[in-house]
Specification:
This protein has about 475 residues and is mostly helical. It has a domain of about 90 residues: Chitinase A, domain 3 (Roll). The strands form five sheets. Strands 2-1-12 form a three-stranded antiparallel sheet. The termini are far apart.
Length: about 475
C-alpha cells in the first residue's frame, strides 16, 4: 500500500518537529544544534585555532562540538530546574563505578575461598631463578660535564671497597641517587630483560649474596647485589601470591568462558566502530555482540559500559584495530556475567565507598556549575526570574565560559561521561558530521594560510585549555613498562 506525502509528514511531526526539520535542512555550515541554537562550523574552527595556535588539531572539532552540546544541555537543565542530583539519579549516573565495585567485591569473595599461597611457593620461585631480586646503589653524575661523570665513578669505586651484606642498606641510603635507597636498595622482582642491558647482564651473572663490580649504564654507575633466599623470602612470597592470584583468575575466567559457551559474533568490531559514531542510536540497539548461556551481550549493554569513558577514549575506538576490539567486548561481556553472579550472591557496595563515590560525583557537578557560572543566585530555587529568562541567561553563561576558556581565564571542567549520556538521552540536540567536517577543513585552511604568511608563533604561545584539578576517578595509575634499574 502506498503512503502519501501527507501521512509521511504527519508521522514525522509525531516524532518531533525538530527532527523533521533536520531531514530537510542543509547543515554543511553547522556542527551542532541544541534546541534552536546552532554551533557554527566557523565557530568550532575559531575556538580550536585560538586554543591550539600553530599546533591546532583539526580532529579536535568533534570533541569541541560534543563539549558545546553537553554544556548547552547542562545549562538548559540547570535553568529549567530539571537537573536531578537525588540519590536515585546519582546512583544511576554512577552505575559503571558501582558495577565495578560489585564485581571487585565478588572477585574478592571468590579469592577468599581459594587455597592460600604457601611458603613453598616462594622458595620454589626463588630457586627456579626465572625471576630474580636485586639490590643496587646508583651513583648518578651531578651534571653533564665529564668531570661530573668522573666524580660519580670515583665515589662508586670508593664505596665498592667498603660494601658488604651487613652495611649495604646503610650505604644505599647514604649514597644512592634513586628512590630504592629508602628500601635498602631493593628493586622489583622481574624476569631477565627487566632492566637496561648493562645492568641486566651484570646482575644475572651474580650468585646469591654476591656483589658486582661497578657497572656503568645510561643512568650512572651501579653496584649490584643478589640477596639470599632468607633475605628475599618475604618479597618472593608476595610475588608468588600475586602470580598465584593471576593464575587462578585466569583459570576461573577460562572455566567461566567454557561453561557459558561465550562467543564473540563475527563482525562485532565493525559494529562497535559504527556504534561509537552514533551512541544515541546504539543505546537502544538489541544487536547481539556476544552470545552465551548466561545471557547475550548486546550493543545497548556495551554502550552502558562505554558511558563511563571520556570522549577522547570513545574517539580512539574508531581507530582501534579489530584484534583489540574483540577482546575488549569479550571482557565487558564477562564483566556483565560476573555482575549477575555478584547480584545473585547479594553482594552490596561498602557504604563508605558508596558515599565517597556519591560525594565525588556531586562535587563534580557542583564544580561544573561553578566553572560555567550556573551557580549564580538567578538559578536557585528562590529565584524570581522567569524560566525563559533563566534559560537565556544560561545560554549567555555557556557562551561566556567558552570565551574565558579560549582566553585561559578558566579551567576546563568536562561534563562527566555518564552525565553526558543522560543529558543526551532524550535531549533536543543534533550533531551534524558534515558541519564537523567543514570545521576541520576551515582549521586546515587557516593553518595553511598562516604558514604561507609566515605566521609561526613560538611554541607554547597563546592560550591553552587548562585541565581542572582533581577530575573523575580512574582505575589506578597505568603500568610502568619502561626498562630502568
Amino acid at each position: 500500500m502506498r503512503v502519501g506525502l501527507t501521512a509521511l509528514v504527519a508521522g514525522a511531526a509525531l516524532a518531533g518537529c525538530s527532527s523533521f526539520r533536520d531531514v530537510f535542512t542543509s547543515h554543511a555550515e553547522t556542527a551542532a544544534r541544541v534546541g534552536s541554537r546552532e554551533f557554527k562550523s566557523e565557530r568550532v574552527a575559531e575556538i580550536i585555532s585560538r586554543l591550539g595556535g600553530p599546533n591546532a588539531n583539526p580532529q579536535a572539532a568533534e570533541l569541541i562540538t560534543g563539549i558545546w552540546v553537553d554544556m548547552s544541555l547542562f545549562g538548559d537543565q540547570v535553568a529549567g530546574g530539571t537537573l536531578k542530583t537525588d540519590s536515585a539519579t546519582v546512583e544511576k549516573l554512577m552505575w559503571t563505578e558501582l558495577a565495578g565495585q560489585k564485581v571487585a567485591s565478588w572477585h574478592d569473595s571468590v579469592v577468599a575461598r581459594r587455597p592460600p599461597p604457601t611458603d613453598d611457593m616462594a622458595d620454589s620461585l626463588y630457586n627456579r631463578g626465572e625471576q630474580r631480586l636485586f639490590q643496587h646503589i646508583l651513583f648518578s653524575p651531578g651534571g653533564p660535564a665529564s668531570a661530573d661523570t668522573a666524580k660519580a665513578k670515583t665515589t662508586a669505586d670508593r664505596v665498592r671497597t667498603q660494601l658488604n651484606a651487613a652495611n649495604f642498606a646503610k650505604l644505599a641510603l647514604q649514597h644512592s641517587s634513586d628512590g630504592s635507597k629508602n628500601d635498602a636498595g631493593y628493586l622489583f622482582i622481574s624476569p631477565r630483560g627487566g632492566f637496561v642491558k648493562e645492568f641486566d647482564d651484570a646482575a644475572w651473572a651474580l650468585a646469591p649474596d654476591e656483589l658486582s663490580a661497578v657497572v656503568k649504564s645510561q643512568f650512572g654507575f651501579h653496584i649490584i647485589r643478589r640477596p639470599t633466599l632468607a633475605e628475599s623470602r618475604a618479597r618472593f612470597f608476595a610475588k608468588a601470591s600475586e602470580m598465584h592470584k593471576v593464575r587462578q583468575d585466569s583459570l576461573y575466567m577460562a572455566d567461566l568462558t567454557n561453561r557459558v559457551a561465550l562467543v564473540v559474533k563475527p563482525g562485532t568490531a565493525a559494529a562497535i566502530k559504527s556504534a561509537v559514531s552514533d551512541l544515541d542510536a546504539a543505546r537502544t540497539s538489541t544487536k547481539e555482540l556476544v552470545t552465551s548461556k548466561a545471557g547475550n551481550f548486546t550493543m545497548a549493554d556495551l554502550v552502558r559500559w562505554l558511558n563511563a569513558l571520556p570522549p577522547t577514549v570513545i574517539a580512539s575506538i574508531k581507530q582501534a584495530d579489530d584484534s583489540l576490539l574483540n577482546p575488549f567486548v569479550e571482557t565487558l561481556a564477562k564483566n556483565a556475567i560476573l555482575l549477575k553472579q555478584a547480584d545473585s550472591a547479594k553482594i552490596t557496595i561498602n557504604p563508605t565507598m558508596y558515599q565517597a563515590l556519591a560525594l565525588q560525583y556531586k562535587t563534580q557537578i557542583g564544580g561544573l556549575k561553578e566553572a560555567v557560572g550556573l551557580d549564580a543566585p538567578e538559578f536557585s530555587d528562590s529565584s524570581k526570574m522567569s524560566a525563559s529568562e533563566r534559560k537565556k541567561l544560561a545560554v549567555e553563561k555557556v557562551d561566556q565560559y567558552f570565551e574565558k576558556l579560549i582566553g585561559g581565564q578558566v579551567q576546563f571542567r568536562p561534563v562527566p561521561p555518564t552525565l553526558s549520556a543522560e543529558l543526551r538521552t532524550g535531549g533536543d540536540y543534533k550533531i551534524y558530521p558534515a558541519g564537523v567536517n567543514r570545521a576541520i577543513e576551515l582549521i586546515i585552511a587557516k593553518k595553511s594560510a598562516d604558514s604561507a604568511a609566515g605566521k609561526t608563533p613560538a611554541l607554547g604561545a597563546g592560550p591553552r585549555m587548562q585541565a581542572a584539578p582533581g577530575g573523575p576517578p580512574t582505575g589506578g595509575a597505568p603500568a610502568d613498562t619502561g626498562k630502568r634499574p
